[in-house]
Amino acid sequence: MRRKKAIWVLLAVLMAVFMVINSPMVWKWMYPVKYHQEILQAAERYTVDPRLIVAIIRTESNFEEGRVSRKGALGLMQLMPDTADWVIKQGGFKELTVADLEKPEVNIQVGAWYLSYLLTKFEGELVPAIAAYNAGPSKVNNWMSQKMWNGSPDSLENIPYGETRHYVQRVLYYQQRYNQVYNERLE
């Protein structure tokens, strides 16, 4: 009789744990969104899925403000200074400088513009755009024109740079998670 009761208690505990783990509150705790309004504004302005922006921020900086990479990439979206300078000129951000990238709202705007540019450049193809965000559009164009990689999600293992291959995998993973947890308004 004791054994039967212990099994029922264990089953009840397991069910409770399962329900807690699958609650939206737990998922939102595991996959937080910071800079909610800034991301939504940039996403709307540049017609980019806000969950993609969040996935890139999560992959690049894990929402750590003021982050600078070993290679010199700046801010939440880890923009290289040369790329940011080009985006500032091309995107009509006349009042901004590269130094302004330390401000999260500026970094998100500039990064979202660049992401939109890459999505347009790669004709809406998400995977090559993500790869280009990491390795640069000329490298991705080169890989694809030389038939080293066809740009499809099914052939990620053919991306010549291991760092870029893993980067794309992480962004796609986080985007999938954020798609499961949040709607387009990040609610």
Provide the structure class: mainly alpha
Quote the beta fraction. under 5%
Question: Helicity, in percent?
Answer: 55-70%
Low-confidence stretches: none
Oligomeric state of the chains in view: single chain
In this structure, how is the largest beta sheet organized? none
Radius of gyration: 20 Å
> Number of helical segments?
9
N-to-C CA distance? 47 Å
Using brief descriptors, characterize the structure shown.
9 helices; globular; 187 residues; mainly alpha; single chain
Description:
- By secondary structure, the protein is an all-alpha fold.
- It contains nine helices and no strands.
- α7 crosses α9.
- The N and C termini lie far apart (47 Å).
Write the layout of secondary structure elements.
Elements: H1 2-21, H2 24-30, H3 36-46, H4 50-60, H5 81-90, H6 104-121, H7 126-135, H8 137-145, H9 162-181
Helix pairs in contact: 3-6, 4-9, 6-7, 7-8, 7-9
What's the short version?
With 187 residues, the chain is mainly alpha-helical.
